[in-house]
Amino acid sequence: MRRAFFAITGLAAGTTALVVLKAAPGTGHLDQAVPIAAPSAADEPAPTTSPEATPSKARSPKPTRSATGASRSGAGAASKSPAAARSGAADPQPTSTILGPVVTNEFGDVQVRINLVGDRIVNAAALRLPRRTAQSDQRSDQVDSRYSGTVGMVVERQSADLDTVSGATATSDAYRRSLQAAIDQAR
Amino acid sequence: MPRRGAFGRRLLVVLFLGGLVASVLPWWRDTPTGSLTGATAMTTAAGQITGLVAGYLLLVQVLMMSRLPVLERWAGGERIARWHRDVAATLLVAVLAHVALILVGYAGLEGRSPFGQAGVMLREYQDMVSAFVAAGLLVLVGLVSVRAVRRVLPYELWHAIHLAAYAVLLLGYAHQFSNGSQLFRPGPVRTGWIALYVLVVAAWLWGRVVVPLWFNLRHRLRVSDVVVEGPDVVSLYLTGERLDRLDLLGGQFFRWRFLTRGCWWQSHPFSVSAAANDRWLRLTVKVVGRHTQDLRNLDPGVRVWAIGPSGTCTAAHRTRERALLIAAGSGITPLRAMLEELPPGAALIYRARTPADVLLQEELDWLSRNRGLRVWYVFGSRDDPGPRQVTTPDGLRQLVPDVARRDVYLCGPPGLVEQYRQVLRQAGVRRRQIHLATFAL
Question: pLDDT tier at B195 (50, 70, 90 boundaries)?
């Protein structure tokens, strides 16, 4: 029974330690994820753009990516929580689909599509991802599974402010740029 | 006889801790450093960690009850039972923490009260109804296993409730994969977690079905004789086939199931009370409850289903050459079985209420004449001068001056065993030299 006592204490201490460690390097940021939807919510009737209607207007952000280290925006905001994904309420609002531009980096092309209900992103998908080698294929999968989908980080954060997937910095960065352009277009 | 050391046991502990780390690792890798800001995120994260830990511990609990021969051999049934109890307490706390933290965390994210959040999860989240039922069952199983509660419940009722733990495994399964942040995505983590379940179920089937089936078809045990040893003690003699090939050490026990009406559905652990021989097995049982009462009336020829052998309270597990055995009441039976396997020079302190309560005395006397066993019978209840004297470090040293250099085997009522364990530690006996044969949880 004494062992059980130690084990329970260990559980509490261990859990606390893990959480504190992950919270540790206080980058002192306020909630960055929140503001996106708030300001423009009322006025726009949210353009009902069909997928074909928006060909990649290729507002292509410069395809050259010089500073890899620059994309250290990784210290994002909230933790990932499946709860946040569940709020797709019954909607009278119009839905729309917007295609981001093709962003090219040294591994290949990245293009992102988002689905919106009103102002809210409800789905994100990568139409193109670098697939030239087994390794880049694997990294693309990681990026895709973290960011895309109805419960991915894009839907959760409602912004292009996404944590960089470790080991796939360039692809993460290209994804974010295509996504940002799509979001800009939507608003 | 080859010694069986502590290597296997330590390996099991290392594997357990490794698994624990591995089960929290996906969370660690998925969560970027510095991403947990604010109480809500932290609460949710703590809920995820405790959930992963609870999921892992539940699997460990079932694995420990799988009767897998390698576990019985490396750790021993008694020790596994103690581990099971300790892990159970931790598991219960982990599950309660998981439920509370997730509710509070998600409620914070979605701007509800925790109770409102519980309602939303039950209605809208996949597989959460069964998960809540599983948590409730686990709490029930935990409550009836609290010592004070368990003591007042009949064993059969307690056991029936305890079987609900398997329902917990089943009902708690789905929600981990439909809602678990680390597990809902296809990938190595999800696959690994499912594989863990498959492994545990396979181990359970192996230990509970395949091995016993093989053992019992091979040995075909039957009751051959029931002998009254004392006012409420009987010995059962069992015969069977190929008993010379039985890998049995003195001091080990089987879980027995007597296949007659009224008895077949219960399985109870009893020690073998005689050294292994190729003609018969004997178990000596004190009549304490309905089941043991029925054992008195067994007819010769009754089939017996046995799972075992199990237990590490044997001569092969000792660390020193010589041994001291301390038995109380019917606790003599497993110790009696190992006497022949100990080298000469062993000492036995046998506590009984009155001389009439001494069991197997002829055999002990024979062993004392022929195998150099020294026996002290100590009569009286706990507060009489004789028993009091032999439960002090000095009293023990007077009887057995080299007690600190012996392995000590204890078997008797849990309270007495605990008392002796402390006295022995005071007398300078190291922890690994002390072997407990209690089966009490």
Answer: very high
Q: How confident is the model at residue B175 (pLDDT cuts 50, 70, 90)?
A: very high
**Paired tokens of B202:** 């396979």
Question: How far, in Å, are A122, A148, A156, B36, B417 from residue A176 at the CA level?
Answer: 16, 11, 14, 21, 66
Report d(CA A105, CA A178) in Å as an integer.
Answer: 12
pTM here is 0.69
Nearest to A22 among B31, B90, B181 (CB): B31
- Chain B residue with CA closest to A13: the answer is B46
Number of H helices, E strands in chain B: 18, 11
Chain B 42-71, residues with CB within 8 Å of chain A CB atoms:
42, 44-46, 49-50, 53
Residue A129 lies in a domain: yes
pLDDT digits (tens, 9 = 90+) for B207-246: 999 999 999 999 999 999 999 887 788 999 999 999 998 8
Look at residue A168 and tell me if it is in a domain: yes
Residue A174 burial class via C-beta count within 10 angstroms: exposed 0-12, middle 13-18, buried 19 and up: buried
3-class secondary-structure state, position A118: coil
Residue numbers in A near B35 (CB within 8 A): 22-23, 75-79, 163
Report the C-alpha gap between B30 and B19 in whole angstroms. 18
Q: How many domains does chain A have?
A: 1
In a domain, A76, yes or no: no
How far from B132 is each of B96, B104, B122, CA to CA, in Å? 11, 15, 8
B90–A15 C-beta distance less than 8 A:
no
Whole-number Å distance between alpha carbons of B105 and A83: 9
> Is A79:A18 a contact under the CB 8 Å cutoff?
no
What's the pLDDT at A140?
A: 85
3-state secondary structure of B138: helix
Q: How far apart are CA B135 and CA A114, in angstroms?
A: 38
Q: How far is the C-alpha of A179 from the C-alpha of A161, rounded, in Å? A: 10
Angle ∠(B304,B360,B75) on CA atoms, nearest 5: 55
**CATH number for A151:** 3.90.1010.20
Q: What does the pLDDT look like over B28-61, one tens digit per residue?
A: 988 878 777 788 888 989 999 999 999 999 999 9
Closest CA to B308 of B1, B71, B2: B71
For Cα atoms B91, B94, B100, give the angle at the middle one, nearest 5 degrees. 140
pLDDT at site B186: 83
Contact present, B256 and B264 (Cβ < 8 Å): no
Neighbouring CB atoms inside 10 A of B245's CB total 10
pLDDT at position A60 over 50: no
Which residues form the domain of A113? 96-186
- Please write the tens of the pLDDT for every residue from B126-157: 889 999 999 999 999 999 999 889 889 888 88
Q: Identify whether A48 is part of a domain.
A: no
Alpha-carbon span B441 to B86, nearest angstrom: 10
CA–CA dist B293, B290 (Å, integer): 5
Contact assessment for residue A96 and residue A115, using Cβ atoms and an 8 Å cutoff = yes
Closest CA to B77 of B221, B250, B269, B206: B269
CB contact under 8 A, B37 and A77: yes
CB contacts < 8 A (A, B): 119
Is this complex's ipTM strictly greater than 0.90?
no
